[in-house]
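Worked Example 4.2. Consider the chain below.
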Amino acid sequence: MADRTEMEKRDLEKELTAAVRGEVSFTAADRALMTMDASNYRRVPRAVVAPHDADDVAAALRVCREHGVPVVPRGAGTSIAGQATGVGVVLDFTRHMRRIVSLDPEARTAVVQPGVVLDELRAAAGTHGLTFGPDPSTHSRCTLGGMIGNNSCGSHSVAWGTTADSVHELELLTYGGEPVRAGRGTDAGGAPTGLPPRLRDGVKALVDGELALLRTGYPDLPRRISGYALDTLLPERGTDLARALTGSEGTLGVLTEATVRLVRTPAARALAVLGYPDESAAAEAAHTLLPHGPMTVEGMAADLVGSAAGLPKGGAWLFVEMGGTSRSEAAAKAEALCRAAAADGSTDHTVVTDPAGQRALWRVREDASGTATRMPDGSEAWPGWEDCAVPPARLGPYLRDFRALLGEHGLRGTPYGHFGDGCIHVRIDFDLLTPAGIRRFREFSYDLGELVVAHGGSLSGEHGDGQARAELLPKMYGPELVGLFGKFKDLWDPAAGLNPGMLVRPARLDENLRFDVLPRQPVPVEFVYPHDNGDFSAAVRRCVGVAKCRNPATGSASPDVMCPSFRATGEEQHSTRGRARLLHEMLAGDVITDGWRSEEVRDALDLCLSCKGCRSDCPVGVDMATYKAEFLHHHYKGRLRPASHYAMGRLPQWLRAAAPAAPLLNALARTPLGALGKRLGGIAPEREIPHLATEPFTRWFAKRVRDRTAGKAQVFPNGRVVTLWPDTFTTYLSPSVGQAAVRVLEAAGQQVAMPGPGVCCGLTWVSTGQLDGARKVMRRTLDRMEKSLGLPLVVLEPSCAATLRTDLPELLPDDPRAAQLAASVRTFAEVLEERAPDWQPPRVDRPVVGQTHCHQHAVLGDAADRRLRERAGMTGELSGGCCGLAGNFGFEDGHYDVSVACAEEQLLPSVRSSPADAEVLADGFSCRTQLAQLGDRPGRHLAEVLAEALGEEPAGGQ
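Applying the procedure from the previous section yields the following structure tokens:
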């Protein structure tokens, strides 16, 4: 039997490869990447095909049909009901079929392929003052094909409706290979146009035979997404076949092209944020705002957003956007709405007209789909009842009943969403790991289905039914209409080859749960994973698939870093989500079968820059840099490592040994021996070896102390001592940074001390997964720092500061000194702000350009730096993204092209376009090195800029 299965697999692979011009993959890695979407479900596909065009789709369908293999079309994989997972061949439309074929601003239409990302269409339409109306929170990465498959909506649906309202015509192929051009209207015989005869006659007969049921079986509400929209085929509804197929979840045909409608965008917008005492009050008020013509009415409560900056007083809020021909008109409409809301129970409000301020507030809302996956106490919460909808006027009573039902089942959730349309998103703390918890999940789902229907609602109001809710459709529609759905499916797909198990004759809602395959006991690991109770599986489970890491660009005004390797490659395996999926499958063991030794996981993590951007930018706090270090530790345990791990992973040792011979080694590095050294050390041949300092910073500092103490004793009026951390990069490669920092700290009235020799944060050992070595280095450091514990520890290199603040206590959780040292870590700007709040820095009065260090963005924060720059007269913002060098990453052989691509995304363009007098700031040694090697303007640490502005140091020091 096994031999026959293997032969069938080889035949399928051979025929697909011969028939399709796009990529065909049966590899474990590519299959593992497609096992899940953003739902609770997991199904393992046989293969992944990335078609180039409609002909490829037809060819793939033909081969799969001949082999009896099902097909699942897939976009960005952000579906929340399981409909983007499948056991057959997954068609990945994000690689090639992502072209905007045409855009007609006069007709306000666009022709798109299914893989077009929504924001790309919105950007193209925006040049004509147009947009695509539906805008789910995943707009930066979701595809038009996925939106059409699910009938997606978004925050602006109160103004522009659902995707079905924006679809004009669809071109698709059935599983049987029949081409369909679905639009609106009928032929002379009253049958839908654009269908082959079999389907044309069958659809007409089905509708004609069930007119009464179609006219009475559907609830009337704006967010009715569940089931097939067969009522749109009624004559009085215009026989709109395109609308009927929208939301069919890939179960009837495979979309190859769509003509969509665009809408005119207002010239200006104002965002009114209205505060209410609680969630129920906000829900009761939402529908009363609709007569004011808002573009959005979004709701959130305090248990989800906490004390987010910029929100008015209240326990819940409505985000209401108003449009106008000018900023003043939009603001006036928003103020009028606020006055009306105040008379109807609003407790406070704010109106934001500044686009940047609006973006910041909308980000709070958009990140909710990830944020909601963790309860306030850190426990996990899951989708499953992500988007049911009721008539807007019923939302308040429904939410009260919903909260009561949660309590009856001992569950918790944090509702939020499209209050103006009566659509609620919620993640609930289901226990999906134990049989008892899964039973409760099932029982609650049945009870909630009845509650939604009792309030006249729809089981799905945005994300479709998939596997999550399709089992409950008889509760909403009754057996007769659900039976009609089955007949419609059988008419279009008699072989049941398209996305089986979804929507019609679905799998049970508690089958195929993605957690079933994970280990029930924590696996032995090195890091403590404090936010996941030491459980690596729980850490990996953090990724719920919302795919913010798949954003193709961060935007010029965005400080975000995640995920530079995805933006450079465009490949799922090099995204945070892709790596998390592979780690999930590694733990599961049936697709990735060799555990920590997996080459598939190793290859995916190879291009992870360990930037830690996901630690802060991922809505659920996935920390891939830590997972990578963990994996590399186990993967290479007891085995020979790559040369770069020995060369750069132990860099502090080599630099300490090389320091006495710095002049000779600097000269040799520019000879053929330097090229040989790079090859032996696993260093990219394109890279220059950094120049070694002839006088290390520690030697300079010791000499300075000797010179000072030989004369009159120094008196510091404030008596404030700070410890300056002698990191490896400052000490041996960039001592001018340390010298400048000493100068500025002393000017601010601080007495600078330094620990003795041999201290190191262990960064390079951590980043290469040499965790035994890292702990050894860290323990030695704690021993030597014991007398300095309690003093502020100023760390100039952001990556070292981040290591001391997070990796140190997470690798040495049982040593109280680790937590104490971590708590003492301060950035250069932080210590000046805390210890010398009245000190006035020298005026620089120049614009700045550059990039906030990734680790500072993710772990340390840059608020103090911003304030310090402002006080020194430095204007402008630093860019987001990653420089691409990222410590050892950009120096490793094979990484050069990705490293350069990362630098070219934001850092280098921002420097090139900056004024000639702009100060290029780069606090990280990697960032400065990348600028020096790829650009023509060097970067400097903030300390160097301020020290220069202080003027020449008086003879003999301060």
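The two ends are 84 Å apart (CA to CA). The chain is about 40% helix and 10% strand. Compare this with Example 4.1 before moving on.
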